[in-house]
Amino acid sequence: MQTRCALVGMPGSGKSTVGRQLARRLGLPFVDLDQRLEQRLGTSIRDYFDQHGEAAFRDHEAALLAELAAQPGGMVLSTGGGAVLREDNRATLRRGFPHVMYLRASPEEIFKRIKHDRTRPLLQVDDPLARLRDLYRARDPLYREAAHYVIETGRPTVHTLVNMIMMQL
Ligand code: S3P
Q1: Mean pLDDT value of segment 134-163
Q2: Which residues take part in binding substrate (predicted)?
Q3: In this structure, which residue's CA is closest to atom 12 in ligand 1?
Q4: Is the CB of 148 under 6 A from ligand 1?
Q5: How many domains does the chain have?
Q6: Position 116 pLDDT exceeds 90
Q7: What residue numbers bound the domain in which 144 lies?
């Protein structure tokens, strides 16, 4: 059976960067859930949030995730940071992907990486670090529930992280 691997974790934990390189090394298609959603919605996630709200976005996210989980063949999937919020999505991930990896990073590490990024709607607040800490507190258990493995992203380079993941496959 071909490898099916999904990456979960906080915004800024490196899911897309690591996922793209992992897919290249494995010779598998790389699917970025957020990018696919933007294609489907015909607008950026940020604008979609602004116009339709988070709940409508989550419905589209759940529908696309279920489609991808049911699609046969090898792939590396990078999910959006909130894809684990719904219990159904966590079950869909585990069912559809035998290798779900949680890329764990502390809120402080993430803040350093993405403090200048204006494309992430959930971080457009006065105190993004406090927001990241709240998100982390609420979501860390959900990422752990969805994932089969936890990959600590603190120090290693992207190349090393890809090697760490490949050792688990
Ligand atoms: C979200 C994270 C984003 C994107 C949307 C919501 C979240 O993806 O799906 O803005 O709830 O954490 P990234 O994790 O790729 O930033």
Answers
A1: 96
A2: 34, 58, 81, 139
A3: 81
A4: no
A5: 1
A6: no
A7: 4-168
